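chain below, 547 aa
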Amino acid sequence: MASSKTAQLTDFTVDILGRYMCNGLDEALHSTDKNTQRPDRSPQSDARPFNAIIIGGGSFGGILAQHLLYADKTNSYRILVLEAGRHSLPEHFQNLPLNGQPGSEVWGLAWRTNVAGGFPGLAYTVGGRSLFFGGWSPRLLDEEITQWPAQVVTALKQQYFDEAAKQIGTDASNDFMHGKLHIALRQLLADGIKNHKVRHAIPLAQLPLHLSNAGPNPLEFLKLEAPLAVQGTPPLPGYFPVNKFSAAPLLMEAARIAQVRSGGDDVKKRLMIVPDVHVTRLVTGQRNGATVVTQVLLKQFGIEQSVPVPEDGVVIVALGTIESSRLALISFPNLPNTNLIGQNFIAHLRSNVTIRIPRSALPPGLPADSESSALFVKGKFEHGPNDFGYFHLQITASGLDKPSTDSESQLFKKIPEVDLLDALRQANDDQVVITIRGIGQMTSRNPGSKVTLSGELDEFGMPRAFVEISLTNRDNNLWNTMDEAADDVAKRTSLRSVRPASRSGQTDLRPSTDRGTIDQAAFCEAPRRPGHNPSRSWNAPDGDGSQ
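prediction:
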C-alpha cells in the first residue's frame, strides 16, 4: 500500500505532524533499492541499506535514534525505526491541556500473566510510555549496582548518568516546584530523618547530591528534592523550557533534521521512522562462527515483509522488557543459552498511602491559596550482614479547597486560561492532601519470576508472552519496611498521629492505603542478564547478543 505523499485528512484534522515526522514502510524499503528510480525517474544506484534497525520507537528507541543521528560525524549512517503504533501526541500528555490521558486509542496488552489485576500494558504510539510516565527518575546509588558488570557501571558513572539527567531535567532542583508549602514539608521531613524519626531512611549525610545548580555549599535538605523529569525554566536565553520530558519531541526534531539534510531525497535520508508495523521475528544466520540477525520480519496490513540487515548492520531491540524477551525467545530458540532469556525478571513492590489533613496541622504562616510539593526519600533494609534491599518514597502534596484525595491536583498541569489561574491564586485551601508512594525493588534472580512463551497466539500468529511473578520472604520483608517508613513520613508531615498504613479504618487524618502486588507499570531490570559468562548471560555488557 503506497503511502500518501501529502498530509492526510481525517474527519477532524490535517495530519501534518504524522506526515512530516514519519515514513511509510514502502518509502523506507524503496530508499534502499539500487535497482529502481527516484520519483523524478533518475536512477538511485547510490541507495544504501540501513546500518541500524531499531525495533520500537518508544522511550528508549526514539532517544537512541536521535542520539545515533547526531553522533554520526560522517553523515553517512542510516537509521530505521520500526514502531508498532502510530503517531498520536507530539509531547508528554501533561504538557497539553487535555485534562486526562488517552485510553484505548493507544493502550494495549500483549501478554498474559499470573499477576492478579493484570497490567496496564503498552502505549502503542511513537514515543511510547514516555508520553505518559510519571517522571520520577532517581539515580541509583553506588551500593545498588555493585553486582553489575564493571564496564557498565564505569560508563554510567563517568558519562551516561549525567547526560541522561541533563537531558530529562533531573540535574537541577525542581525549578517548577517551590512555595511555602513545599519548603515547610521539606523541612519537616529533613528534621524527621535527622532525628531518626523516619525508620529505615538513609541519613541525608550519606547520600550524594547530583544537582548542578546547588552552589558551592549546598544544604543537605536539597537531597529531598524530587528527581522529576521536568524542566520548568529555559535552558538558554531565547529558548522555551522542555516541560515534562518525553521521547517524542526528540524523535520529531531528529526526523525533520534528517529530512532537511537530505534535501527531500529519501535515498539520502539518514533517519526514517515507520509506524504501524509489527515485528514478528528476527531471522538468523551464521557468520564467522557467530549467530547474527540477517533479516527483520514484520507484518503490516496483514502482509508479511522483511527488512534486510547488511553485514555491517546492527539490530537494536528497544521494546519494553516483556516484549523484548518475547521477541528474543521467538527468534533465538536454539542458542546454547536460550534458557536464560526471560529469567531474572524484576518488578517494583509498591504501596500508596494517602492522608488528608487540615492546614492547621502544618506550621503556621502558610499561604491560603493552592500550592503543591514533591519530595523524595531513599531507604534501605538490612536482610543480613552486608545484604540490603532498597526502596524510595515519592511524596506529593496539594492544598485543596474541597474534599478530595488527589495529591497531584495542582501538579503536572498546563492551564492556559488566565481566569482559572486567578481562581487558583485566590483559593482558600483548608486541607492538604499528601500521598506517599513506596517503590521497592524485588529480589533478583528469583526463578519464580520470569517471562516465557504462552500457548496462545496473538493477532499476528505469534506466541504471546506469559509473565510470572513470585514474591519471596525477602520481598515481603522489604515491603513491610517500606510501609513502616511511609507511616513515619505521614506522621512527620502531619505533625499528628496517623494509624499505620497496614491497618484499615478511618482517623481524623483519613488515611487511604493501596498495596498492589507489584508496580504494574514498571519493570526495573530487563531479564537479559548482561555479562561475560555465557553460562549466566545471553548478551554481553555492551548489549551484543551474538554470544
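The CA atoms of residues 341 and 528 lie 6 Å apart. The domain at 16-114+246-280+294-318 is CATH 3.50.50 (FAD/NAD(P)-binding domain).
thats it, cya
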